[in-house]
Amino acid sequence: MKLSEHTVSAIARALLDARRELSKQLAYWRARQYTAHVDLVTTELRENANALTELADAIAPWLRQHPDWPSVTANEPLTTN
């Protein structure tokens, strides 16, 4: 199946937006010291990083140029502003 560049960009954007939201959630739960929630969000961040990496490897190598890519590859939360 061949996806259009627009579709691939939309998928990447959605994954990065989700990563930003997960990063905010992680900061929130860490501040409240809810370990179970922290573990769950950390797992979701890892899955998000895997999805972004697969996308970059398969059809979106330009993702590696995104400013948030170092955080993705290090499986770290994004800096929330």
Count of spatially separate domains: 1
Work out the helix count. Answer: 3
- Low-confidence segments: none
Number of strands: 0
Q: Largest sheet at a glance?
A: none
- Determine Rg (CA atoms, Å): 13 Å
Mean pLDDT across the residues is 93
What percent of the residues sit in helical stretches (DSSP H or I)?
over 70%
Which range does the strand content fall in? under 5%
* Distance between the first and last residues' Cα: 37 Å
Q: Name the structural class.
A: mainly alpha
Shape: elongated
**Elements, N to C (H/E):** HHH
List the defining traits of the structure above.
81 residues, mainly alpha, 70% helix, 0% strand, elongated
Fold blueprint:
Elements: H1 5-32, H2 35-58, H3 69-73
Task: Give an overview in words.
This protein has 81 residues and is an all-alpha fold. The protein has one domain (5-72). Helices cover 70% and strands 0% of the residues. The protein contains three helices and no strands. The chain has helices spanning 5-32, 35-58, 69-73. The longest helix has 28 residues, at 5-32. The radius of gyration is 13 Å and the shape is elongated. It starts with a helix and ends in an 8-residue tail after the last helix. 11% of the residues are buried.
Short account of what is shown:
By secondary structure, this protein is mostly helical. It has three helices and no strands.
